[in-house]
């Protein structure tokens, strides 16, 4: 291409890309950025020989996109970006001109000078380790008034140049000069070993550059070095793999075994991260998958700004989230094509400067390819940024300097070896394969779901429980708010915007509906062919009734406890309270509290006796002849509470008086197998929870090889039996449904999703077999006697039921537990069935005296008014 066309092309294309792609700037800033980009491209193309001038265009096009991304992330101001672009263009031009001037001179640097420079660069690279605010891994050195300088990139450029000249000196010198050249190479190898102890990526890049420079220098006379790289792409892979092996060997040679093991272990961890990515890589993957093959444009992805190290290590992931992997991949191929075209001019040159330039561009190509494959999760992440696309200040400057040195050395007279079409086909194939893998792979896009905009969580009567969206520039941890705070914490859980895994409650279980449950445009089916359709958030209406929720929270005020209220006809959770959770806004990520209402299961005590009675009644087992005061078991005896005598040993009478002796005897007569099978089959015990409100624990029997003493204590809700208030309420919902001849509905917390009107999710029945209606009726009759009978354990609720016009039945319980669970050594329970429909279960810990759970249940009864309203979406 003629110079007359090269200069306009290198000036106009990057400038036009900047003009149309940059977002979040004013008109004046857009014009300024466009002019700065045009000047940088013009300076670069004018400073290099005509033979490669046109190939600077892809480089500055990529730089324009990279800087637009930095502005989009808020990492640099528009004025700072203009300065950065102009400085980068000037650095490229100056480096090109200086390298041309030096290479055209007759003198070469002496081997002694090479050794001194290598020693100086070795010391300079270690300076960040001792300088305040320095970072040895990235090679960043703070400079007062200027921010920081990425000296790691600059030292790599210098050391690769030194290798080319030192190897050349070995061929043309002898004696002390040759020893000096050897010393320079040894210092470079020492730098590689020291870098391996810090981070393998920069070390391998330096080693690859040194090997490439050496190969081209040794074989430059017959051209074999040129053909090795430019005519056989497969051999490039061999060189890279051999370099890795040599690098690991150097690590063992130059460092102690402990540090070597650390280096190897870290490399293995990075390889394993491809299958089990760490949070950083997982978020990068999710962002890439969000962009698909062709993205929606700069600034379109809500996830791009939330990828850790998105400015540098994962710049390609961020760009892919906005532009799509095919567009980003095409830019990468264009940059690689430009680099390798220049390599084909330089690698066959007679002067060491030409081979150094070829090695610099070859390393830049490897670095760019590696960074891309790392962001696409095809190769391990190396900790090095993508040249040109990761346009941070010092990184862009060092990239421009290295490219300027290399492109400036190209001359029309060099024996050009064209990078063959097979190589280009391989690059294009890699881009296409990566695009397909990203767009249609199985990567989860939900790892950043907590960062997406999301709908509100509402009660059935329109009260807002959670509102606000995902992470923004103003609220990097998200602006999600919980208006009722602790009162509804057991319902909502918490959303941590930056950490998709830091979720609980409905924020976790309904995340799909909250973030992507809304209606998408009619044309979305076509859009889905090129990238995932952007999510439309939707509001989620819970089954909670705000009045009943408030009543339960008030009843537990000042107590350590939890409560659940269910509608047995629908399975809806009308209230779910845990007094210990506190305001979700105060929770810490990684230390989410376990809810007493749904997760932290403890012994249920006598509250399970009606369930055991129903199992026994269905199987025709009774214990009317059971001992009234004591049941002897191996190693001890089971007594009634307070040593009382059981006056009525029928099932109904035993429930009324809560006779331990009768239920211990029932458990023994049923036996472990029948008791466990009955509780599992009819009440869902020991089964995984299918609750749609988050993680939940149901009723568990723990029966497995129990002896007679253990089995007897299981019959009174002790030993290994465990439950939560929600689990007990769900079991009683099954009992009430069975008494009415209905299949019990599954317990659920989501009433509707507001997407173009209320969408009611389907709910399957509870996975149980209803117990015989007669058996369930006997158990409920005993519960009625517990409130209305002369010897009932819950007689205090009888007056409340009469005053409120309610038909109430209930069962209380007191379980002995370790003091680590409850400071008093007891957990108090109460379950009340209201009007053969509603089930209230309360648990109280850290208390003494008369059952406080019964008192709390009575307070809830006094606040219940009519039936809950139907769920609605209109607030």
TrEMBL record:
Domain Penicillin-binding protein transpeptidase: from-to ranges: 561-847
Gene Ontology annotations for the cellular component aspect, listed alphabetically: plasma membrane
Membrane-spanning ranges: 34-52, 59-75, 81-98, 110-127, 147-167, 179-197, 203-220, 232-254, 315-336, 357-382, 388-412, 424-443
InterPro entries referenced in this protein's UniProt entry, alphabetically: Beta-lactam/transpept, Beta-lactam/transpept-like, FtsW/RodA, PCN-bd_Tpept
Record localization: Membrane
GO molecular function: penicillin binding; peptidoglycan L,D-transpeptidase activity
Short name of one Pfam family: Transpeptidase
GO BP term (any one): cell division
The keyword Transmembrane is assigned to this record: yes
Highest taxon in the source lineage: Bacteria
Membrane topology according to the record: Multi-pass membrane protein
Keywords tagged on the record: Cell shape, Membrane, Transmembrane, Transmembrane helix
Name of this chain's protein: Penicillin-binding protein transpeptidase domain-containing protein
Organism expressing this protein natively: Microbacterium testaceum
